[in-house]
Amino acid sequence: MELSDTDLAHARRCIELAREALEDGDEPFGSVLVDSAGAVRFEDRNRVGGGDHTRHPEFEIARWAATHLSRPERERATVYTSGEHCPMCSAAHAWVGLGRIVFIASSAQLTEWRSGWGAPASPVAPLPVQSVAPGTPVEGPVPELHEAVRELHRRHVEVSNR
Ligand code: ZN
Q1: 58 is catalytic
Q2: Fewest Cβ atoms closer than 10 Å to its Cβ: which of 55, 56, 94, 120?
Q3: C-alpha to C-alpha distance for 22 and 96, rounded to whole angstroms
């Protein structure tokens, strides 16, 4: 898979947002919505620390896009994310008709890392985006950025186990 330097820059921004989430007591995930002209239109990071475990950035992006972008704009937009969309977010992405997804670490990879560190299993199956949203173009993983994402998740599990 060939990603452009622009793609990589947006992917790196997702890691910064994930780091911000971790430092704020949330789970280390960050996502960015970029339109067809290359402009960042919206970005967010995980906010589940308050107890609402649906507060995923990809879900916020889908809702924001449904309100602020036309259908054609959504189709041509790209969502970058540090970790592959979960089934809830994949469904939201598809329901609002968003376009391409670029993820750094796959759900399968995250699950493998987390189980290796003794973290409890997720209550939601780690299905690939395309099992939930078969019409969505997906690119990922991005192995050259794995180490940064892995380290944030390792720290998160460490903090959660305290
Ligand atoms: Zn999600």
Answers
A1: yes
A2: 120
A3: 28
